[in-house]
Amino acid sequence: MELSKHYEPKEAEKKWQAYWEKQGIYRFDPKSKKEPFSCDTPPPTVSGKMHIGHAMAYSQADYVMRFQRMLGKNIFYPFGFDDNGLATERFVEKKCNIRARDIPRPEFIKICLNETKEAEKELKKDWSSLGISPDWSINYRTIDEWCRKTSQRSFLDLYRKGREYRKEAPTIWCPKCQTAIAQVELEDKEETSFFNHILFGLENSDKKLEIATTRPELLPSCVAVFVNPDDKRYKGLIGKNAVVPLFDYKVPIKRDKRADPEKGTGIVMCCTFGDLVDIEWWSAYNLPLKISITIDGVMNGLAGKYKGLKINDARKEIIEDLKSNNFMVKQEQITHTLNVHERCGTEVEFLVTKQWFLKYLDIKDKLLEAGNKLNWYPKHMKVRYDNWVNGLQWDWCLSRQRFYGVPIPVWYCEKCDEVILAKEENLPVDPTTDKPPVNKCPKCGCDKLIPEKDVFDTWATSSLSPMIATKWKEDDKFFNKMIPMSLRSNGHDIITFWLFNTVVKMLLHEDKLPWKDVMINGHALDPKGKKMSKSKGNIVEPKVVLEKHGSDAMRFWAASAKLGSDIPYQEKELVSGKKMMTKMWNASKFAIMNLKGYNPKKTKLEIIDKWIFSKLNKLIKACTDSFLEYDFSRTKSETERFFWQQFCDNYLEIVKDRLYNSADYSKEAVDSAHYTLYNTTLAILKLMAPILPHITEEIYHLYFAEIEGLKSIHVSDWPKYQKGLADEKAELAGDNAVSIISAVRKFKSEKNLSLNKPIKTLIIKCDEKTKKDLNSVLKDIKKTVKAEEIVFGDKAEIECQEDIKLGIEM
Q: Per mean pLDDT, which range of 203-212, 297-306, 532-541, 773-782 is the poorest?
């Protein structure tokens, strides 16, 4: 290749991305005898677009995979797209200006499949532009036939194991999306509200009970009143009946420790349902069920005159009526935390609906034990997993009342409600369009079988990603070889979603861990360290960044984040990345031009060459150890520091004279320079290859690829630590030489002299031991500082370091 004056990242990055795919550089070889290393990465949603956080997270996982590939591992790195569920449904409705409920379900599903397929083509381009290295031939869509089959197979397996059940029960419900949701899909939202202090009546008494509530619209659903048994104020009320204002019916007054004497007035109304405690009381005390809110978030007939009003409108009218009837004592403004649906931000309700659940509350100890067996990077992220498991209060609600998703593969007997499972050999099935596997109910003989219309929670499928990728139940030999996978990489925000649910599924199906290691990345923040959001207008678009700076510069920024830490997007870090690439290009060009015709072979080394090799060897060990602990940021910072300070600023300047004026040196000294220049340049390229894959590939193909006989730097060997190259004596001599050279440079700069300005005499004042060490590098010092002679003496006042002073005569 011709040595261009400048490196053009835009052209080079597109060229090498196309080359890698065409040459199959990142293909997994199922027949290889090499040790496999596998990664399970989150399938991005088709409904969204790539944001800067994605770019950071996927780049960080890719550093690790590229490093492991260079260690000689057989890399299994599949890539999926999540095109299943509510988010996709909303995306298609908005894009096509349609509503799922207004058209036949099969037609809507067909539109979704077409739209997501088109969206995935663009998304693949976006993700490829990051320079990540998955095997694009091993890909999946969470709605494709194989994923639907695996998801439905999972359901059948867990049903037979007694882990899944269907029942009418209190369910977390989103009125806007009109579907049941799981506990993991809740978000906390701070909101200003009012404690409404309301007067309840007391049966057969003129006495009034003051009860504070934020949800007066639930008065028609009130089924009991609770007080704390230790609250002396209300001991005389226990066992009596309270009268609900406006609705004028009686409810029992009961005692329970969960009634907080410090909250409100200490008397709590229990409604079906306002929160989780209401559900616990309803279940524990066998209270009646009074549901006054419909699935679409309006008041029903139980609410009397408020029937048909939306929840917030009903709240306003009930408050006005409480005031006008003298039932309102006061309103106290508060800030409290609401549970909202993470998809749409709507406050959730608790309704009684018939749903499918996965039972796992009984295996919390086993789930905690699984968390202990995983290797967490960083370690403190395990706390989030533990807290989530310990805080679980609900079994996993698997069913969703949506149009688009993986169908639940069952039918029901119209007469006795018997569950009829699909046959495994028929999977995937859609009960709304496919015939049931039997003609009549095996239990009662009824021939009317009703299809299940609900679909699975999207996480019920996404949680199977390791099983989807490793051909679970399809190729047992391959599955057992690959599970547990080597690594799961995901953000700290989905530890409780994707990571936890995957652990659940793998444990319940196979009693195994899904992976050995877990690598948790942080979030990308705006330049001021604030969370990015559309409403704040502080979103950083990766496409804009890539267009302006290129992929390698962005990857350089992403590598500056310590694993697990949130990192602000800093333009200056990308500029630093571009400077690094420019310097790498120029330094490598210098090396290649001076290595023309060189055939690498071992030779006796000069002391200054031993010095740089010893430093490089320590760097290789530090980088290798760091990468094995997923500490890519240390690899980046240490290599960057070595490259600028040791290699460019010092070694290249010192070695120039041996390269330019080779006739003044022995053949061994020149061979030593060539050998060292070749190996240090190549090692630096390889150390930076996982982080800056494009420029390192470009430079590698200028010269090194032909010598190593390889198609890519990314399938070359990672530099190896060699104990024999550690040379403390050479390091001391080299460090002293560098210290003297730096002091002379500083002197010339302060005097506004050119660095090439000759020095008549350089005087070095030091002890005998240092003098002896320096003798081996005197020629290097002399040529680098342009000194006509170097002498040892006492006429030296310039501070160099503690044991060395200099005198300079021009």
A: 532-541
Residue 163 half-sphere exposure, CB side, CA atoms within 13 Å?
18
Q: In the structure encoding, which two tokens stand for residue 596, read together?
A: 């023309």
**Dihedral pair phi/psi, residue 332, rounded to 5°:** -115, 115
Q: Which amino acid is at 461?
A: T
Q: How far is CA 476 from the centre of its chain?
A: 29
Nearest to 658 by CA among 730, 594, 704: 594
Alpha helices in 629-751 (DSSP H): 632-641, 652-660, 667-688, 693-699, 705-708, 728-750
Distance of alpha carbon 56 from alpha carbon 566, whole angstroms: 10
Pair type for strands 179-180 and 375-377: unpaired
Quick one: pLDDT at residue 91?
Answer: 82
Q: What is the dihedral of CA 242, 246, 249, 250, to 10 degrees?
A: -10
Q: Which helix (H) or strand (E) holds 210?
A: strand 208-213
Cis-peptide into 590, omega within 30 deg: no
578: how many CB neighbours lie within 10 A of its CB?
17
Tokens of 390: 């310990």
Output the CA–CA distances (angstroms, integers) from residue 202 to 44, 207, 223, 243, 561, in the order listed. 57, 6, 15, 6, 62
pLDDT tens column, 771-786: 999 999 999 999 999 9
The secondary element (H helix, E strand) that includes residue 196 is: strand 186-202
Residue 85 has pLDDT above 80, yes or no: no
In this structure, the strands spanning 268-271 and 375-377 are unpaired
Sign of the CA dihedral with 556 first, then 557, 561, and 563 last:
negative
Name the CATH superfamily housing domain 179-349.
Valyl/Leucyl/Isoleucyl-tRNA synthetase, editing domain (3.90.740.10)
Give the model confidence (pLDDT) of 333-386 as tens digits.
Answer: 878 777 788 777 888 888 777 889 999 999 999 999 999 999 999 999 999 999
Mean pLDDT in residue range 49-78: 94
Three-class secondary structure of residue 5 per DSSP = coil
Question: What CATH superfamily is the domain 569-726?
Answer: Isoleucyl-tRNA Synthetase; Domain 1 (1.10.730.10)
What distance lies between CA 414 and its chain's CA centroid? 45
Question: How far apart are alpha carbons 220 and 248 in whole angstroms?
Answer: 9
- Asked if residues 468 and 80 have their Cβ atoms less than 8 Å apart, the reply is yes
Residue type, 81: F
| Cβ proximity of 350 and 393 under 8 Å | no
**Average per-residue pLDDT for the chain:** 92
SS3 for 39?
strand
What are the start-end ranges of the E strands in 360-404? Answer: 375-377, 396-397, 399-400
Query: Could you count the other beta carbons within 10 Å of the beta carbon of residue 437?
Result: 15
pLDDT digits (tens, 9 = 90+) for 149-198: 999 999 999 999 999 999 887 888 887 877 777 666 777 788 888 889 99
What does the longest C-alpha to C-alpha distance in the chain come to?
116
Cα distance between residue 481 and residue 477, in whole Å: 6
What pairing do the DSSP bridges indicate for beta strands 36-40 and 485-491? parallel
Q: Is the pLDDT of residue 14 over 90?
A: yes
Helix, strand, coil tally for the chain in percent (to 5): 45, 20, 35
How many whole angstroms separate alpha carbon 635 and alpha carbon 645? 15
Tell me the torsion sign for CA atoms 591, 594, 596, 599. Answer: negative
Check whether 1 has a pLDDT greater than 60.
Answer: no
Give yes or no for a cis peptide into 428 (omega within 30° of 0): yes
Residues in Cβ contact with 142 at an 8 Å cutoff, skipping those fewer than 6 apart: 43, 80, 81, 82, 83, 84, 85, 406, 458, 461, 462
Q: Which homologous superfamily is 34-145+484-502+509-558 in?
A: HUPs (3.40.50.620)
Question: What pTM was estimated for this model as a whole?
Answer: 0.86
- Stated length of the chain: 810
State residue 538's pLDDT score: 82
Q: How far apart are CA 276 and CA 279, in angstroms?
A: 5
